[in-house]
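Running co-folding for magnesium ion.
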Amino acid sequence: MKREDRKARISQVGEAMASLFSCPAPSLGIDIDGCVDEAPIFFKLLTSHWPGKVFVVSYRSDREKAVADLARYDIRYDELILVDSFDAKAKVIVEEGILVFFDDQPEMLKNVPSMRNVMLVRNEGNFDFEDKKWMFSNETGKLL
Ligand SMILES: [Mg+2]
C-alpha cells in the first residue's frame, strides 16, 4: 500500500471513529409542578447543559405564570407547551421527538411509548415519606 493510500485509509478510519461519538442531540422534556419546583438546582443545571432542545410540558392553563416560574428558577428552554389532559403529555412527547421526560405523576406517563425514557421525580404527592412507600392508584400501579 502506498504511503498516500495509507494516510487516506487512516483518515477514513479516524472519521468513522469520530462519527461513532457524534449523535444528534436528543430533546429533553420536563414538567414544572412537582419537578422543577421540587429540584430547582438539578433542573437549572440539567437544562443549562443539555445539548439538545428543552421542552417544558405542563398541565397548566396560565402561560404567563409558567413563564414567570421558569424565569424564577432560571430554567433554559426552547418551547413551553401547556396541555389540558393527562394523555396530552404523552402525545407531545411523541410528536416533538422528546427522548427523555421528567414528571412526577405516573398518570401523565403511563401512555409514553417504551422507546422514550421516563424519569419519575419523587415528592409528597407520589411518595409517603413517613411510611417510606410509593403511592399509586390501580390506574398507575401494580403491587408485586
Ligand atoms: Mg407535575
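Result summary
The first strand starts at residue 27 and ends at 30.
The chain has a mean pLDDT of 92.
Job closed.
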